[in-house]
Amino acid sequence: MKWLLRLLLLIVLLAALLLGWLFFGGGHRPTSPAMSKVTAATLQDPALIARGEYLATLGDCAGCHTAQGGARFAGGRSLATPFGNIPVPNITPDRETGLGDWSFEDFWQALHVGKGRHGELLYPAFSYTSYTKVTHDDALAMFAWLQSLPPVHVPSTASTLAFPYSVRKSLTAWRALYFREGVFKPDPAQSPQWNRGAYLVQGLGHCNECHAARDSLGGTSGDRHLTGGQIPMQNWYAPDLSTQQNGGLEGWGAQDIVDLLKTGRSAKGVAFGPMADVVATSTQHMSDDDLQAVATYLQSLPPRTPLVEEPQLFNAKAIVQQGEKVYTQHCADCHGKDGSGVAGVYPPLDGNSSVTEPTGLNATRMVLLGGFAPVTAANPRPYSMPPFAQQLSDSEVSAVVSYMRRSWTNNASVVRPEDVSRYRHTPID
Amino acid sequence: MNTNASLRLAKPFGAAVLLVVAMLSGVPSHAADAPPTHPAPPDTLQQRIATCTTCHGVHGEGTPGSGYFPRLAGKPATYLTRQMQDFQNGLRKYAPMEYTVRQLSPAYMQEIAEYFSSQQVPYSHSPVPAVSAATMQRGDELVSKGDPVRKIPACASCHGSQLTGVEPSTPGLVGLPYDYLSAQLGSWRTHTRATVAPDCMAVVANRLSDSDITAVAASLASRQLPADTHAQAAGSVTPPLPCGVLGATGDGT
Q1: Which residues of B touch A383 (CB under 8 A)?
Q2: Do B96 and A280 touch (CB under 8 A)?
Q3: B112 near A384, Cβ under 8 Å?
Q4: CATH number, position B116
Q5: Are A315 and A322 in contact (CB under 8 A)?
Q6: For residue B141, what are the domain limits?
Q7: Residue B115 domain-assigned?
Q8: Are A367 and A329 in contact (CB under 8 A)?
Q9: Which of B45, B47, B117, B112 is nearest to B85 (CA)?
Q10: Residues B104, A372: C-beta atoms closer than 8 Å
């Protein structure tokens, strides 16, 4: 019996040690700006700051770090995740609530290693899984730009993360599974343009954070890179960016990709939902060279079969037939009987990756919500689509979306009325 | 020959002329250009803002039958622009509107506001729930005289003697549905509708009791329309409370 008692004691001791380490362990002293290897003069270089502004725009930092109606980059909002709400911090140089006391070393540690100033593990809602690929020079430019902003005093919101996610050390396991630290390594076999595109897409652009499926732990696996996925909480589907048929960018030319990112519209489709915001605040400001580089890289991605299973429906044919009637009555005037749209005005539905993506979410929610195409310098007065949420029942929406997904050259699964009902009640934003 | 008869004759004649003109201008060769598609939509603002007009009507007449979507036609453009800005920055909460206007530019919002502001379409009445004569009387009183004891100013003291609004920032209240009016007064109290400080309507709404809201909404929604429904000229009223939307600063001056 004595050995059993000893063993129990040992287990209790080990557990206490583990808990202590989880809650109190792992310290790291921040580097004060005065101790930094980067001088204040370097950070005030106007050329560096200007480059940092371009890069911060390209990375769309403001997209997350700005509250509705709040000062840009001042945080003060929460990001909803399946694990709870995560506060989005203020990244203006306010000393108390922002990055005022941060050195470049602290910033690099956050961006590249995913750790806060005191060594605490950061939640990957901050996409350091992508940002780790950003070069030291680019990070320095962005830091200089952020430090040049007027400081705004905005405290963080409260976290509502549930246990065990509320314990930052629990991220140790997550990081072992999903995080590979390291700056982007160019592929010498590829052109400089391809490498620039890959660097932007995989790094600052953090495209994969939406355009890949997340598993139950909120991670993305490397072999599903950019193959599309449902965006958690927001319930939009970020389509496959490879050249996959039916749901991918099959048939898109480089110019179509450039057009969509620059103007919000293209001959193949229009940006909407979260991507409309990305185009308006970020990609429309990218240089033509960078847009071409992104297109070159995306066009090199090989098609990969989607993972989503098609629901088996006994009455698929009847649904599609009903859908044709709804389509003729409500959709054909703008999108055409043949689904070809009107060039530069209304997007085609035939061959549109947001119509044929695996879930049917995007087409369903567009029919329900309608909305404007992105407002960009190239398209300052966009056309819009009417919302049909009030006019069409769940079964009518399911029918018309199923019809679009099965017509012309499209060949995707039908959408069920119960899916429409679910998406009808998805909170907007 | 009477006028009707000449119109009857004119139609086929006009059609024949059009047909001949079409044949002469070489329409058949057009068919070879591209696969036949439907006609391009007109390049008009009205066409561009289809997402707005679905609920608010092509001319901003609202959807009286629905009892909710408000009339926009004839409301001051500055007021309409301010509402879109308030939806953008979350002062005014209504998810479909926040979603729709979320990234419109100031210039585009101004253009849309001017479109609706300049529309002149007949008003129509929405259904008003049956309320007691006493309630209606209370409502009428609040609208035209207010309640000095509870420091509730009359609606007419800001929204114009005929309640048709005042340029540039005060909306008309006539012709709005009961459900919309009572929902707005309620939302000022629950902080789902707000505007730049000092928010005078929030002050007024919080001085109203629940039954006052019913009364005032019923009175406004059942009111006869004045002959002239245009908003009153700017500066023609002196508001009894400091209002941020009218240029007052936050310190009550």
Answers
A1: 41, 47-48, 50
A2: no
A3: no
A4: 1.10.760.10
A5: no
A6: 56-221
A7: yes
A8: no
A9: B112
A10: yes
DSSP string, B198-234: S-HHHHHHHHS-HHHHHHHHHHHHTPPPPS--SPBPT
CA distance A230 to A236: 6
Reduced to 3 states, what is the DSSP secondary structure of residue B138? helix
Whether B30 has a pLDDT exceeding 80, the answer reads: no
Kindly state the tokens that stand for A428. 């907007």
pLDDT in tens, A123-136: 999 999 999 999 99
Those residues of chain B whose CB sits closer than 8 Å to some CB in chain A are 35, 37-38, 40-41, 45, 47-55, 66, 88-91, 95-96, 98-100, 102-105, 107-108, 111
Q: Count how many domains chain B has.
A: 1
Within-domain flag for B84 = yes
Would you call A370 and B54 a contact, using CB atoms and an 8 Å cutoff? yes
Rounded CA separation B144/A92 (Å): 50
Distance from CA of A277 to the nearest CA of B (A): 7
Residue A243: exposure state from Cβ atoms within 10 A (0-12, 13-18, ≥19): middle
Binned at pLDDT 50, 70 and 90, residue A316 comes out as confident
Please tell me the predicted confidence (pLDDT) of residue B107.
Answer: 98
pLDDT at B12 exceeding the cut of 70? no
The complex's ipTM? Answer: 0.89
Gap between the Cα atoms of A21 and A17, Å rounded? 6
Tell me whether residue B233 is in a domain.
no
Supply the mean pLDDT for chain A.
Answer: 91
Tell me the pLDDT tens digit for each residue of A236-294.
999 999 988 878 898 899 999 999 999 999 999 999 999 999 999 999 999 999 999 99
More reliable by pLDDT, B251 or A79: A79
CB-nearest partner of A384 from B40, B50, B88 = B50
For residue A68, give every residue at least 6 positions away whose Cβ sits within 8 Å of its Cβ, in sequence order, or none.
A77, B88, B89, B90, B98
> Is residue B141 a part of any domain in this protein?
yes
Tokens standing for residue B28: 């058949």
Q: What is the tens place of the pLDDT at every residue in B76-98? A: 999 999 999 999 999 999 999 99
